[in-house]
Amino acid sequence: MSIKITATVESYEQAHKLLExxxxxxYFGEEKFGLRLPTSFSREEQVALIELAHKHGKxxxxxxxxxxxxxxxxxxxxxxxxxxxxxxxxxxVGDTGVIHVLRERKDEIPYLYDGHTMVTSARQINFWGKRSxxxxxxxxxxxxxELKQMAPKLDILGxxxxxxxxxxxxxxxxxxxxxxxxxxxxxxKSKEAGLFLSEPRKGGTxxxxxxxxxxxxxxxxxxxxxxxxxxxxxxxxxxxxxxxGIYTPGxxxxxxxxxxxxxxxxxxDGTWTAERAEELAEKVQALHPEERGLDTGFFLLxxxxxx
Length: 307
Description:
It comes from Vagococcus lutrae LBD1. This is U32 family peptidase. The chain is of the alpha/beta class. 36% of the residues lie in helices and 21% in strands. The chain has a single domain (4-165, 222-305), classed as Phosphoenolpyruvate-binding domains (TIM Barrel), CATH 3.20.20.60. The mean pLDDT is 93.
């Protein structure tokens, strides 16, 4: 049984620890082309990360999944040349313009289709599979009942987020900058500023928000952990797991990833039980940042509840 684990990277040092822990794929990139990354790496740093992954016999995925306006699109071919020259294993792509550029290349780079909230059906995923995608990042909004129906129809792999923050809205507009300008505040608008939205009369709501060159990003009130649900995912052949550390920094993220690697081994060994799952889920909860909630997202919802 093969179960593949992809993890985001915030530093070279963290990448080394993740690979030593047993991660199969490092996920990183630069902010100009990739969405919602823990760190924006320079070209030199990306080369070092690709080489590090290959040194460990693992793979590197680079995010090229932004929706590119014309100015950025002009820079995409050069970036793809750079990635191909340094033997990136695959990229994530959501903009059909980037896919068009990819298909015109003689040395076409393998890609996973990452259309965010739009990737909700086997028919759509297979559409991109017929256009050379090797896999697709399934939307976080797809509940398990629909995942079960989707699984036997997939012609290419479907990646599932099993841990991390989940973006619920992106606007190309500079919403944070416009608001701060309106109230006469020059506050930092980046991810590091720790800004969030809170619903009126709903104490404790915490929708993280920040702005970059791709616009404004708003995240779900709670992050996702599917530790208790891993057995169900594998039973339905979802064996490509993603862990996102955008809001879980440093060694804490490495420890959480290690728990999912431990879970993977138990599933492979046939020793996975509900008790073991609950034990590891509690450890994830204990490590998870205190200021952030944690639940199963849309996974356990009745499909009729998802609007």
